[in-house]
Write a structure and sequence with these properties.
Layout lengths: L8 E5 L3 H13 L4 E5 L2 H11 L3 E5 L7 H8 L11 E5 L4 H10 L3 E4 L4 H13 L4 E3 L4 E3 L31
Parallel strand pairs: 1-2, 1-3, 3-4, 4-5
Antiparallel strand pairs: 6-7
């Protein structure tokens, strides 16, 4: 199935011009026509106001304001972009980073080096499988996805606890 991405606006926030070119070229290959770029989190926040993006793709490690800090600012219930789907790109894929991405409210994690297939899968996921947002005392972000083996991924302090009768799930996977 091929998605029509021509009507969507993407915001790429990445400090590497080379990586922005790769991401932009892949998105254009998928049919995206409205792609706005920023080189760090601070300029990314400014670009959000101007571009009103539908999907945010950002790097984790950047100068001035990194991706994690940018997500923390966006995932405030009062932020007009609080509900935007976020795909975080990183070369740091150790378990602690994955858990942190989940705690931040990131929809999808994309590890470098990226492939066109993996980027398309993440973009497709946020479009075809939108998630409701939940708010707890310690978390605001997309509701966890159900996982196949139904393990209890959400531990105390690692994110929202499932409501009574709900399955435990992991939002990054």
């Amino acid at each position: 199935m091929s998605l029509d991405l021509a009507s969507l606006t993407f915001l790429l926030v990445e400090d590497s011009a080379y990586m922005r070119t790769i991401l932009r070229t892949m998105l254009q290959g998928f049919g995206a026509r409205r792609i706005v770029e920023a080189e760090d989190g601070a300029s990314g926040l400014e670009a959000m106001d101007r571009a009103n993006p539908d999907i945010l793709i950002l790097d984790w490690v950047m100068p001035i304001l990194d991706g994690a800090d940018m997500v923390r600012m966006i995932r405030s219930p009062n932020n007009p972009f609080a509900y935007i789907p976020i795909i975080m790109v990183t070369a740091h894929t150790e378990r602690s980073r994955i858990v942190e991405a989940r705690r931040l409210g990131v929809h999808e994690l994309l590890s470098k080096p990226i492939s066109a297939k993996s980027l398309y899968q993440r973009v497709s996921s946020v479009i075809l499988h939108p998630r409701d947002f939940i708010k707890t005392a310690t978390y605001f972000g997309p509701a966890p996805r159900e996982i196949r083996n139904r393990q209890k991924i959400w531990q105390a302090g690692q994110g929202p606890e499932p409501a009574e009768g709900e399955q435990s799930a992991a939002p990054i996977g």
